[in-house]
Write a structure and sequence with these properties.
Belongs to the DNA glycosylase MPG family. This is Putative 3-methyladenine DNA glycosylase. GO terms for molecular function: hydrolase activity, acting on glycosyl bonds. The protein is of the alpha+beta class. 12% of the residues lie in helices and 29% in strands. It is built from four helices and nine strands. β2 (30-35) and β3 form a beta hairpin. The radius of gyration is 16 Å and the shape is globular.
Length: 213
């Protein structure tokens, strides 16, 4: 019998730790997205760590900008960015305030509100694909830049919270290179996922984008 997941919100102290401690510890935690159409809950199965100005793959590698400002703020807040002119992706800010680091939420299992997620992910062939990849995850949950800076640790009724869930045992956690990261940042094995979970996205190495002539 599988025990019911803990629905207690994660405290800010959980996120106020080194990024490589927080990232694998997020696996199995529950993300709850409250929308006007109803709530959706997702169990995290895949994440990637980005270590700010120490990490060539991070948005904060070259310092603070209007785009990455939230990454320098208090831990436990949501950082949302827009990519490829089409998709939103969601991160959780970690570490002490003033030092930018964040965990990209790459994939998860929809455990509540699948009916609502399906209306946003019409191309998904089955429920395992609803949040299989960071852009799909954000789309299924209805995440956009309006959520950028949201406090995910509060006990109040907010658009998004992270709950304790059921942490994944260490022997079920795998890690490897981050997906699609180029250059020096591409060698870091900072992608973490739940072994053999069907909602985890496939690894893809970086492919340079062709410039239009």
């Amino acid at each position: 019998m599988i025990a019911s997941p803990d629905r207690t919100p994660l405290p800010r102290e959980f996120f106020d730790r080194p990024i490589l401690e927080v990232a694998p510890d997020l696996l199995g935690r529950i993300l709850v997205r409250n929308t006007p159409d109803g709530p959706i809950a997702l169990r995290l199965t895949e994440v990637e760590a980005y270590d700010g100005q120490n990490d060539p793959g991070s948005h904060a590698y070259r310092g603070r900008t209007p785009r990455n400002e939230v990454m320098f703020g208090p831990p436990g807040h949501v950082y949302v960015y827009f990519t490829y002119g089409m998709w939103f992706c969601m991160n959780l800010v970690c570490g002490p305030e003033g030092r930018a680091s964040a965990v990209l939420l790459r994939a998860g299992e929809i455990i509540e509100g699948a009916e609502l997620a399906r209306t946003r992910r019409l191309s998904a062939r089955n429920d395992k694909e609803l949040a299989k990849g960071p852009a799909r995850l954000a789309t299924a949950l209805g995440v956009d830049r309006a959520l950028n800076g949201t406090d995910a640790c509060t006990t109040e009724d907010t658009p998004l919270r992270v709950l304790t869930g059921t942490p994944v045992p260490g022997d079920q956690v795998r890690n490897g290179p981050r997906t699609g990261v180029a250059g020096e940042g591409g060698v870091h094995p900072w992608r973490y996922w739940v072994a053999n979970d069907p909602t985890v996205s496939p690894y893809r190495a970086h492919v340079p984008r062709k410039r239009r002539s």
